């Protein structure tokens, strides 16, 4: 049987080393493209991974990071996802170079890479997400609305399976990035170092005086002192709510504790709705530029 058609095609089974190569490629593109926004695509990559995951509904098992259905309309056109094309486009050349990786695994790997490269904690990662088609798009309205407060946050995040401590730990991601008037309508960064992950979000929430910003845009807060930082009504809700505020104090006082809890809760977020095969290994990637 010296006939090629009788030879089973060799399946490429990617290993840890292969995913580390993809990680390295994302990290080097982050370094290279430093003329974007505050100097990094990192924050918008984190937002992409979060919006891919945060559609999860634990009752129906729908949504979550398995599927990458934000590639398709209607999900790509949901108001909450405005501006995330920048993140998806950033990753296209990476997908082209490593076509074996699914979009779903790539978007989450990019979130992990961005957090680590922006000096955040190590985020353990498992591979195995499968892309799904347009039929798996989730309905609009599953992601939180920035104009609302604690009841809404609890409704939305309990639906994903998170508790109060986890909600507050997740919000610390707002140490990164900014609001864009042409995306959400809101404006400005939460911290003075939007491309470095720190617990400053919690410190600023507690330590600064916050006032309504006087402008024609949606209702948001600004810090009284410099009027350059912002908080969304949803951010302010976590110090207006007694139970949430206890966790804000914990994370404001202890960056190590924030990093530990943030790593655990982001791993949980990024794995919502993913049917991993039994025995799937958990990997940690070596940071490149951090
Ligand atoms: Zn965000 N987020 N988010 N967030 N978010 C924005 C930007 C970023 C809420 C929200 O309405 C907004 C989480 C939770 C919540 C990031 C990560 C995570 C923006 C601005 C808004 C309006 C978008 C724009 O204009 O570009 C609300 C209401 C939340 C509920 C608590 C969680 C959880 C996150 C990750 C774990 C990040 C990194 C950004 C910055 C994006 C960028 O482009 O700079």
Structural notes for this entry:
- The protein has 2 domains: 14-142, Peroxidase, domain 1 (Orthogonal Bundle); 150-263, Peroxidase, domain 2 (Orthogonal Bundle).
- The protein contains 10 helices and 5 strands; from the N terminus they run ααααααββαβββααα.
- The protein has 290 residues and is mostly helical.
- The model has no long low-confidence stretch (mean pLDDT 96).
- It is 41% helix and 4% strand.
- 20-OXO-protoporphyrin IX containing ZN(II) binds at residues 43-44, 46-47, 50, 83, 144, 146, 153, 170-171, 173-174, 176-180, 183-184, 186, 232, 234, 266.
List the SSEs and their pairings.
Layout: H1 16-32, H2 42-53, H3 85-97, H4 103-117, H5 150-160, H6 164-171, E1 178-179, E2 188-189, H7 200-207, E3 210-212, E4 221-223, E5 230-231, H8 233-240, H9 242-253, H10 255-270
Antiparallel strand pairs: 1-2, 3-4, 4-5
Helix pairs in contact: 1-4, 2-4, 6-9, 7-9, 8-9, 9-10
The structure holds 20-OXO-protoporphyrin IX containing ZN(II).
Write a concise synopsis of the structure shown.
The protein is mostly helical. The protein folds into 2 domains: 129 residues, Orthogonal Bundle (Peroxidase, domain 1), CATH 1.10.520; 114 residues, Peroxidase, domain 2. The protein has a 3-stranded antiparallel β-sheet. A two-stranded antiparallel ribbon has the order 1-2.
List keywords for this structure.
single chain; 290 residues; mainly alpha; Peroxidase, domain 1; Peroxidase, domain 2; 5 strands; globular; binds 20-OXO-protoporphyrin IX containing ZN(II)
């Amino acid at each position: 049987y010296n006939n090629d058609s009788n030879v089973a095609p060799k399946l490429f089974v990617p290993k840890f080393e292969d995913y580390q190569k993809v990680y390295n490629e994302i990290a080097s593109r982050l370094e290279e493209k430093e003329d974007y926004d505050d100097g990094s695509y990192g924050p918008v990559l984190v937002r992409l991974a979060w919006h891919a995951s945060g559609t999860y509904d634990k009752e129906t098992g729908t949504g979550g990071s398995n599927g990458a259905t934000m590639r398709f309309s209607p999900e790509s056109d949901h108001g909450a996802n405005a501006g995330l094309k920048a993140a998806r486009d950033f990753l296209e050349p990476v997908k082209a170079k490593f076509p074996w990786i699914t979009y779903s695994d790539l978007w989450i790997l990019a979130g992990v890479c961005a957090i680590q490269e922006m000096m955040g904690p190590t985020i353990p990662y498992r591979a195995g997400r499968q892309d799904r088609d347009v039929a798996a798009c989730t309905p609009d309205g599953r992601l939180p609305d920035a104009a609302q407060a604690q009841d809404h946050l609890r409704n939305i995040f309990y639906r994903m399976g998170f508790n109060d401590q986890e909600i507050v730990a997740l919000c610390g991601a707002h140490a990164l990035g900014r609001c864009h008037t042409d995306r959400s309508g809101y404006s400005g960064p939460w911290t003075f170092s939007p491309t470095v992950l720190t617990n400053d979000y919690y410190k600023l929430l507690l330590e600064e005086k916050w006032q309504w910003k006087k402008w024609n845009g949606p209702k948001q807060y600004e810090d009284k002192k410099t009027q350059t930082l912002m908080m969304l009504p949803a951010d302010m809700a976590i110090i207006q709510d007694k139970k949430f505020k206890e966790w804000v104090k914990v994370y404001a006082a202890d960056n190590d504790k924030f990093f530990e809890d943030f790593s655990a809760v982001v791993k949980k977020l990024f794995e919502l709705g993913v049917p991993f095969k039994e025995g799937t290994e958990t990997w940690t990637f070596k940071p490149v530029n951090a």
